[in-house]
Design brief:
This protein is α/β, with parallel strands linked by helices and about 350 residues long. It folds into two domains: about 230 residues, 3-Layer(aba) Sandwich (Rossmann fold); about 90 residues, no CATH class. The protein contains twelve helices and 14 strands. An eight-stranded mixed β-sheet has the order 6-7-8-3-9-10-14-13, with helices on both faces. A hairpin with a 2-residue loop joins strand 11 and strand 12. It is globular and about 65 Å long. It binds iron/sulfur cluster. Iron/sulfur cluster (SF4) binds next to loops.
């Protein structure tokens, strides 16, 4: 298999949630209303690659993760898995895809069934997918626990309440790995863990991505952990990606005014980046009523008339980064006017 093959690809992906249905509209005469949670997202993740997805709360990060693993049904665009269009697959094909695309949740305290032993929790996906004999499943469970450095001999018969938060999250990762997936969405997987154990869990995720050839989408508010684990970073704002590129370049030399403000909003104490959630000034426009031009124009200090009328495309290649901003396009300002960090 190609070592850096494209595993998962979103192409112009849209996920809209109807607030007022067509039937309601027909009865009341009011227009259908939809929250445009994802509105034209393009993203590619390859084998052995960890892609970080950052942005403020409500920007669509989790919706993108849930859509890519088909927990939400996209309303437009395409999802390709190793080149195959899986956007609308149903039944056995959807089950087969979900076998290979797994989700790790934020909360290791509520995501593990307290009535099951660790062995039963990790085995559960194999039972659901009716994989192997009891002996096969026992081998796979032991191997998955080994991958997350939890000794099966010691933990197999314990219950989640006997484990620390870090151990629980390792079990959640083992449960995702037992099906031998090719793609994992990790949605804030360490945000509820003590800072002292976050690094060890992230290390495991990163190593597994490289060892097993996994494509990982790492969703986080914590830009420090994104820098620690990610190869590539995508920045979301109001349902769209506004900047993407190699992690080091995005985190050290952000180009989009929104990314620059995200970075500038992280207070620095003794050289350490904060792990607090990032909040920026100004109101985020409603995804029910997105601005006609650039979605960031109501909060951007560089906004021009062009910005307020023409939506920029994610097409302006600046070095290794792609940026959705008129500042970098022929119609906008000259690149010489590129903004300094604000
Ligand atoms: Fe700011 Fe205009 Fe760039 Fe949008 S397109 S981020 S409003 S400069």
């Amino acid at each position: 298999m190609n070592t850096n093959a494209v595993v998962i690809q979103a192409q112009d992906l849209q996920t809209h949630f109807a607030l007022r249905s067509g039937v309601f509209s027909a009865l009341t005469g009011q227009k259908p209303v939809a929250v445009r949670a994802l509105d034209g997202v393009d993203l590619t993740i390859r084998r052995r690659e960890v892609v970080g997805l950052i942005g403020e709360s409500g920007c669509g990060k989790s919706t993108l993760g849930m859509s890519l693993v088909r927990m939400y049904q996209p309303t437009g665009g395409k999802i390709r898995f190793f080149g195959d269009d899986i956007t609308d697959v149903q039944g056995a094909e959807l089950k087969s895809y979900r076998h290979q695309a797994q989700l790790i949740f934020q909360d290791p305290y509520s995501s593990l069934n307290p009535r099951l032993t660790i062995g039963e929790i990790v085995e559960e996906p194999l039972r659901i997918h009716r994989i192997g004999t009891a002996a096969d499943r026992a081998r796979k469970v032991a191997h998955a626990l080994d991958l997350v450095r939890v000794p099966a001999s010691e933990y197999l018969h314990r219950y989640p309440n006997a484990l620390s938060g870090g151990q629980r999250q390792r079990i959640a990762i083992a449960r995702a790995l037992v099906l031998e997936p090719k793609f994992i969405v990790a949605d804030e997987p360490v945000s509820m863990l003590d800072v002292s154990i976050q690094a060890s869990v992230l290390e495991i995720l990163d190593e597994l991505s490289k060892e097993l050839g996994l494509a990982v989408l790492y969703i986080s508010h914590d830009i420090a952990t994104v820098g620690y684990i990610c190869d590539h970073v995508a920045v979301m704002y109001l349902g769209q990606i506004v900047e993407e590129g190699p992690a080091e370049d995005i985190l050290t030399a952000p180009r989009h005014p929104y990314t620059q403000r995200l970075m500038a909003a992280i207070p620095s104490v003794s050289g350490e980046r904060s792990r607090e959630r990032v909040e920026l000034s100004g109101d985020v426009p409603s995804p029910l009523n997105v601005p006609p031009g650039c979605r960031f124009s109501s909060r951007c200090p560089y906004a021009t008339d062009l910005c307020r009328t023409e939506p920029p495309a994610l097409a302006n290649d600046i070095g290794t980064q792609r940026v959705r901003c008129h500042l970098y396009s022929a119609e906008g300002m000259a690149p010489a006017n590129e903004p300094e960090m604000v």
